[in-house]
Amino acid sequence: MQSRNPVLNRISSEQSSGSGGQGFAYDEGRSAYQQAATAQATMDAATVGQQPATSQRSHTPVTLNDVIVKTGINFVILLVGGFIGWQVYPSAPWVMWVALLVGLGLAMANIFMKKVQPVLVMLYAFVEGVFLGGISFFYDALVQQVQYEGLVQQAIIGTLVAFGVMLALYSTNIIKVNGKFMKVMMVALISYALIAFASLIAAIFGVGDGWGFYGVGTLGLVLCALGVLLAAFTLNLDFEAIKQSVAMGMPERESWRLSFGLLVTLIWLYLEILRFLAIFALARE
How far, in Å, CA of 223 to CA of 203, rounded? Predict the structure, then answer.
């Protein structure tokens, strides 16, 4: 069976071959990168087909428990990095920028390396945690200027709720990851990536007080809401990847790549919710 998910598509191909005046441009640039990368990988994934099952395996097959354990490990590492990023940002905000660039490099390595390296996945989780801690502090300090409290806590809760809802919808087959779903997601991801890139350019020229299109009144809130929904629905691709990996008997080592894919989507979802809440808070004034 061929994958509908970019990470699983990579694994499958290897197995078959035998192998406010404020500057916010960096946040939009990162989001545009994530959406464009996901969209490109989605286009490369083939439609669902059939692949004969192998009678013998020379490796230990991945299980759902493997993915859960690896995801838990990465999540703990992410939290450690987040704590450090939060503490460091006030005195050294440049660390967040470094973490951003290093994280992008590690993401590309984890996606395109033929053999997944667990240490790189864990390093990615740590570096992204540092970035998230820094940008969370930045947004929290920004909205506190308008007496808005609990921004980060609300973003975390929102991310967990969205994850739970999507998992429930996927598990009960209310959402089915089929060819039609993939086509819709592909178009949506490409469209949103183009909008985010255009917004990045606009932000550089001061549109929306540095927020780009996201800072232009009601339009900004609508775009943010669409970003949240798109990131949330992308979780279904990760769930499908995990399901197919277990069914296809992928090597246990690939549980690291699957947990990485899930982590990327959750980070994107958190950033979209964080930005939506920040813009909403500032728009009240």
Answer: 14
The rounded distance, in Å, linking the Cα atoms of 190 and 172 is 28
Phi-psi region of 36 (alpha: psi -120 to 50; beta: other; left: phi over 0): alpha
Residue 193 CA to residue 36 CA, distance in Å, equals 5
Most confident stretch, 2-11, 31-40, 206-215, 226-235:
226-235
Q: How many CA atoms lie within 13 A of 95 on its CB side?
A: 23
How do residues 208-264 score in pLDDT, each as one tens digit?
Answer: 777 777 776 778 888 889 999 999 999 999 999 999 999 999 999 999 999 999 999
- What's the residue count for the chain? 285
Alpha carbon of 8 to those of 45, 59, 172, 271: distances in Å? 9, 17, 22, 24
Q: Where are the domains of the chain?
A: 24-35+61-283
Cα Rg, the chain, nearest whole Å: 19
H or E element in which residue 280 lies: helix 255-283
Question: How many whole angstroms separate alpha carbon 238 and alpha carbon 4?
Answer: 9
DSSP assignment of 72-99 equals: HHHHHHHHHHHHHHHHHTTT-THHHHHH
Close Cβ partners of 231 (under 8 Å, ≥ 6 residues apart): 162, 265, 268, 269, 272
User: How many other CB atoms are found less than 10 A from the CB of residue 138?
Assistant: 18
Helix axes 94-112, 64-88, angle to 10 degrees: 160
Do 200 and 131 touch, CB atoms closer than 8 A? no
Model confidence pLDDT, tens digit, residues 170-222? 999 999 999 899 999 999 999 999 988 898 888 888 777 777 777 767 788 88
From the list 124, 112, 117, the residue with the least C-alpha distance to 14 is 112
